[in-house]
Amino acid sequence: MQSCLPRKIEIHEVVLRDGIQNEKKLVSTDQKIKLINALTDCGVRRIEVSSFVNERLVPQMADAEKLWSMVRRKEGVVYAALVLNGRGLERAMRCRVPQIGIYVSASETHSRKNSNASTAEAMREAMLLIEKAQGAGMEVRAGVMNAFGCAYEGNVPQAKVIKLVKDFLKKEPDEICLADTSGMANPSQIRKLLVRVQEVAEKVPISLHLHNTRGLGLANVWAAINEGVSIFDTSLGGLGGCPFIIGARGNIATEDTVNMLHETGVETGINLDMLIEASLQFERYMGQKFPAMVSHLTRSHS
Questions:
Q1: Which residues contact 23 (CB under 8 A, 6 or more apart)?
Q2: pLDDT of 18-57, one tens digit each?
Q3: For every residue of 251-277, which 3-state class applies, written as one string?
Q4: CB 250 within 8 Å of CB 31
Q5: Quick check: 150 and 113 in contact, CB under 8 A?
Q6: How far is Cα 250 from Cα 189, in angstroms, rounded to an integer?
Q7: CA-closest candidate to residue 151, choices 184, 177, 122
Q8: Is the N or C terminus of the chain more exposed, i.e. has fewer CB atoms within 10 Å?
Q9: Is the pLDDT of residue 6 over 90?
C-alpha cells in the first residue's frame, strides 16, 4: 500500500473557524493574527481564516473584517473563508478573500438547522454564490456536509451525496470537499464513497473534512490517503465541532495528523515541533487542555 500513497499531503487548517466557533472564551483579533503567523511559520500553507456569518449566532466570527485587514498575506499561502449566503459572500469579496468554501448539507434536518433551508433550496443558493464568486476571481471549494451520515437522520444515502457533487461540478469548482460533519464515518465507508465520487469528479481535487467524534479520524485519513486523497482539513489541538449538531466533537488534530503522516513517510512541509509548540501556546491562552494526543507526550518540542 505504501507505494500508492501521495508523496505530499496538503493540510487545510481550520482552527480559526471550525476550531474556535463553539468556544465560550472569545479569541481576540490580535491572538488570531499571532496564531495565523505561527501556523505559517510552521509551514502550514492553507488556512481558513474565518467565516462570514451572523455574529449573533457565532460571536467568534464577529471580527472577520478586522481580522482580514490585519492578515499579513504570505506568498504561497492560501487564505480562505467560509460563506453561507449572499451577504457573507459580499463581505468576503470586500475583504479580497482568495478562496471561499460553499457547502450544502446532504441531511435535510441539518440543512434546516444550519441554513434554514432545505437541501434543494441550499443548493440553488450555492450555485448562485459560486457563479458570483468565480466572477470575482475567487477560487471555490464546493462541499457536501454530512456526506458520511447525520447525527439527526443516521445513514445518508451515497446517491444523495453523489447527486450534490454532480450539481456542484456543473459550476466547475476548484475543489470538492466531503465533510464528515457529524463524525460518523468509518474507513470502509470512506473508501466506498471516495471511489464513487472520484468517478464523477474526474480531475477535480477531492478533499476531506473529518471530525473525530468516534475516535476514527486518523483511521479515516489513512483510508482516504490510500484512495489518493491529498488534502485534509485539520484543526490545531483537535478543537472544533458543529454548533448545530449535538455531540459533534472536534476536528482531527493537526499535530496528530502531521505526526502520523511523517511517521509513515508522507511529507506535509510542516515542522512538527514548531506546530506542537504553537498548539501548546494556544492551549495556554485558551486555558484548557486540547484533545490532541501528540502535543501531550513526554518529549522535547524544541
A1: 60, 239, 286
A2: 999 989 999 999 999 999 999 999 999 999 999 999 999 8
A3: ECEHHHHHHHHHHCCCECCCCHHHHHH
A4: no
A5: no
A6: 20
A7: 184
A8: C
A9: no
The answer to whether 282 touches 35, Cβ cutoff 8 Å, is yes
Give 239-289 pLDDT, tens digit per residue.
Answer: 986 655 555 568 999 999 999 999 999 999 999 999 999 999 999 999 999
Among residues 100, 101, 99, 126, the alpha carbon closest in space to that of 111 is found at 126
Residue ranges of domains in the chain, CATH in brackets:
2-293 (3.20.20.70)
Please check whether residue 99 is in contact with residue 78, taking contact to mean a CB–CB distance below 8 angstroms: yes
The strand ranges marked E within the chain are: 10-13, 46-52, 78-83, 99-105, 139-145, 175-179, 206-209, 231-234
- Please give the radius of gyration of the chain, using alpha carbons only, rounded to the nearest integer: 18
Q: CB of 184 within 8 A of CB of 190?
A: no
Q: Which of 42, 95, 177, 242 is catalytic?
A: 242
Condensed to tens digits (0 to 9), the pLDDT of residues 47-97 reads 999 999 999 989 999 999 999 999 999 999 999 999 999 999 999 999 999
- For residue 4, indicate whether it is catalytic: no
Backbone angles phi, psi at 263, to 5 degrees: -65, -25
For every residue of 133-190, DSSP letters joined together read HHHTT-EEEEEEETTT-BTTTB---HHHHHHHHHHHHTT--SEEEEE-TTS---HHHH
- Regarding pTM above 0.90, the answer is yes
